[in-house]
Specification:
Length: 195
């Protein structure tokens, strides 16, 4: 019997699973976690979390999502909704651990010295390319393009001026274009900011 329930939920759309989960159907929410857990953890690692930390924050995000599942109305994707929850949870963790203040001061130092991180000869993959960005650029790009936050939402979450976030996103995308498509910068072409 439990196997048939699992099969039934595996064929449902995320919105339908959310409806079942809102009525207390844990197996339906389990299917949502199975579908989207690795993407949430990947986003957190791209934002700078270590693997174990990404696992912890993702678990907390899914618990929060389960508790607030009735708030999900299907206006966007469930994946986007839970990624925003996870991104904000990670930022709160950084603030609690006083790492966000270090991030902000590192941002100012890097801008003042013109310091860039990364090596253009490194392997060409998204994770490697993101690691080549400064911490500020990586976090802003991940929030705006990975978690789906607008520039204004990212600025509010990071407690940074809107213009600073937009600059980090712009520079980060330029570096990603150059790194992922060195022959002409086509890799992330056409993608515009969302704020």
């Amino acid at each position: 019997m439990p196997g048939s329930t699992k099969l039934r939920f595996a064929s449902l759309h995320d919105v339908e699973l959310c409806s079942h989960a809102a009525t207390g159907e844990r197996a339906a929410f389990g299917e949502l976690v199975r579908r989207h857990g690795s993407a949430v953890r990947a986003l957190l690692r791209r934002m700078g979390a270590q693997s174990s930390e990404a696992d912890d924050v993702a678990q907390d995000a899914f618990l929060t999502a389960f508790e607030r599942i009735a708030e999900f109305r299907g206006e966007g994707t469930f994946a986007g909704w839970v990624k925003r929850i996870a991104a904000r949870a990670y930022l709160r963790r950084l603030q609690r651990e006083k790492k966000l203040g270090v991030f902000a001061s590192e941002t100012i130092e890097n801008e003042a010295t013109g310091e860039a991180t990364g090596d253009a000869d490194a392997a060409i993959d998204l994770d490697g390319a993101l690691k080549a960005l400064s911490a500020a650029e990586r976090l802003c790009v991940s929030l705006c393009f990975g978690a789906g936050l607008s520039h204004a939402e990212a600025a509010e979450s990071l407690n940074l001026p809107l213009g600073t976030v937009k600059s980090h996103v712009k520079r980060g995308l330029e570096k990603l274009r150059a790194r992922l498509a060195p022959g002409g910068g086509v890799g992330v072409e056409g993608r515009r900011g969302n704020g």
